[in-house]
Sequence to fold (482 residues):
Amino acid sequence: MSDLQGKHFDTVILGAGMSGLAAGIRLAYFGQKVLILERHNAAGGLNGFYSIAGRKYDVGLHAMTNYVPPEAKGTPLVKLLRQLRIRREELDLAPQLGSAIHFAGKRIRFANDFSLLESEIAREFPRQIDAFRRLDQFIRDFQETALSAEPGSARTAVAAHIDDPVLADLLLIPVSYYGSARENDMDLPQFAIMWKSLFHEGFARPYEGVRQIVRVLLDKYRAAGGQRKMKCGARRLLNDGRRVTGIELDNGDTITADQILSSAGLVETLRLCADQPDTVASDNIGQLSFAETITVLNQDPRRDFHWQDTIIFFCDSDRFHYETVRADGSVASLIDPRSGVICIPNNYAYSDQRTLPEGWLRVTARASYSGWEKLSSADYAAAKEIWHTHLNQIARRHLPAVADDAFARAVVAQDMFTPGTVERFTGHLGGAIYGAPRKSRDGRTPLGNLFICGTDQGFLGITGAMLSGISMANLHILGGKS
Fold:
């Protein structure tokens, strides 16, 4: 019998990711007896880290979006810090140096100042600048965080203002790659969230990467009296058709709670319910997944290779295709390399002119979940080697030239994750990082004391995930506190 058998809690939270930890902190601050259950041995969820040979690798975090300078008021980051009682310096956030979108022979730069993007659009698309400004005003006025916000099509909204298909596609590339669960489109409220968080606010990164954020959250949760059980997941949610009556753990023990807040995903949570079939909500399983290569260098990318950008969103096709990758059994079909994201974590303005001790290059592209999962162990390893090399080659076409032999000599370590990796370590079916296409905006489920937070509630990014946990805890458990 475990130390949890038969215990009762005010709230049990499923998952120690960003949203679950934030919700736990918020509830513990108000005197709740809270337990976070996490099936794996590390916190962070979609934004965690792992070690190989003593080297820490971030997963998920390219950037913490919604960055604003210290004097800003009333923004998502400011609200997050206030609600979780986090001092800004605890996160040690460094702003980006500057990023870019590469598409149709154009290079559009942007940074943590919207005026740069605006001037770049005016330079490359002079006939569209007024339309771009009208689109921006439409998005500024859109109430995307309102739980009553109606779903809609981002492409339709963009097309209502922008009649140049190249500019329309170009604007959709970064917001899609950083948050869309829909093929070739994006839900309008989520589009507005990402537009503001990427273009009006911006990118930042802690010097130590995502583990800095996870450490701060864990420290706050522990200090507030929250309990956490690692390597212990929920196997089933027992219920009477109206409310969850018990939580059966992986080891067979059962606990109870007044409220349950799940960051496991909407479909995944419904499938935990004992009264639901294993196939429930099959039409709402996310279909978009990704692979990412991580390359460690003994050179500083900016100083030695003259790679200046923080993040590059690229598309090498005439039109932007953001859709499920359907493998045909060949290694070549496992990933769609026509578009993706290049991230250089060294290129942030770290305080005191600090530089990372090693160089990093991360390349992300859409990948086929089914294709990777069908491979034997040997074929899987071989495919990772092939695609690691190929994605790096594609990325280097978008960066200042470095001789092949010089780049090869600089590589000291590498790793790669695939859609199956995402599924195994997050529980997201199909490795769908952005979850279900249809979200539960108000966090409600058919059971009166079971609520959703995180990716499938609909807020995006690290900041959005934490705000999702806070918002759902405030709304459903703390009686609307803010």
